[in-house]
Specification:
It is built from 7 helices and 15 strands. The protein is of the alpha+beta class and about 290 residues long. A 5-stranded mixed β-sheet has the order 11-12-10-14-13. A hairpin with a 2-residue loop joins strand 1 and strand 2. Helix 1 runs antiparallel to helix 2 and helix 3 packs across helix 4.
């Protein structure tokens, strides 16, 4: 008989709990599920009322994974979903996170990445935050990413705006500017583009706005194009399918200034003590709404 768990009166049936998702690192599906349960009180507020997209790795990170937007067939009836019509030919039945039980079930589905929309289901056409994505190309020193993140913070501060950084969980830093959901995606994207043009003028030798990867060179790509309806970003505290099981971790600006970490410094083994000590450093993204 398969093991089961009741969470919020919802029954989850587990399968293949000993499957190593990060082979050779002692991290199996059981430990992923436990991580999601342990981090749920910090993670769920950032997922609330947002369409979610997942990257699943049933065979572990060394085997091909796949993205999933539609709620899969066979999902429990209690999984909360909402259909969204992208156009007349395409409707997606998105999953919404209703509680720890959703994260537990996703862990059993070997979801190693949780991505979220930038807008909530209440204001789908207007994002709740603008995102400045600092994406370093291969060979760029991480200290340079921190330099650009701090330059971005200074520029926004000059405009009387407050912003909040987190690691991508891979190589870069993502800086969030929480907004009242009254601006269109086009407006927000153009605003981010204009700010990034200012950053580029200050640091033309280490940053680029070049869209073609092959033409960027060893620079930091200033990506504002993520600010588009239907685009998603890695959620705070989501794991990544990379060696060491890194997570997307909110940061203090003092940590960025000191370059006291690497993007892979925070992982599913050590993020919880940090959360217990510092709390959710990304909580202001849900509260500190601003106008641009």
């Amino acid at each position: 008989m398969s093991p089961t768990l009741k969470e919020n009166e919802k029954k989850i049936t587990f399968t293949n709990l000993q499957k190593e998702l990060w082979p050779g690192e002692g991290l199996d599906k059981y430990k992923l599920i436990k991580y999601y349960l342990d981090v749920s009180s910090y993670m769920l507020p950032h997922l609330k009322n947002r369409f979610l997209v997942f990257q699943r790795f049933p065979g572990g990170i060394h085997k091909k994974g796949f993205f999933q937007k539609n709620c899969p067939q066979g999902a429990p009836a209690w999984i909360k979903t909402l259909p969204f019509e992208h156009d007349r030919q395409k409707t997606t039945n998105y999953i919404l996170a209703s509680g720890p039980e959703t994260l537990t079930w996703l862990g059993n589905q070997a979801c190693l990445e949780i991505h979220q929309w930038l807008s909530s289901i209440n204001t789908l056409d207007c994002p709740d935050f603008a995102v400045f994505d600092l994406d370093p190309m291969e060979g760029v020193a991480f200290s340079k990413v921190c330099t650009i993140a701090l330059a971005l913070q200074r520029l926004l501060k000059q405009k009387n705006l407050r912003c909040y950084p987190k690691t991508s969980g891979s190589r870069g830093i993502q800086v969030y500017l929480p907004l009242y959901p009254v601006y269109s995606y086009e407006h927000v994207r153009k605003y981010c583009e204009d700010v990034f043009k200012e950053v580029y003028k200050l640091y033309p030798t280490i940053t680029t706005l070049e869209k073609k990867v092959s033409k960027r060179g060893p620079k930091i790509y200033l990506d504002y194009l993520q600010n588009a309806k239907g685009k998603t970003l890695i959620a705070p505290y989501s794991p990544r399918p990379l060696p060491g099981a890194p997570v997307s971790a909110p940061l203090k600006w003092e940590e960025v200034a000191a370059v006291s970490f690497l993007p892979t410094s925070f992982n599913i083994r050590n993020i919880l003590p940090r959360l217990h000590e510092k709390g959710d450093l990304f909580a202001p993204v849900l509260q500190d709404l601003q106008r641009i």
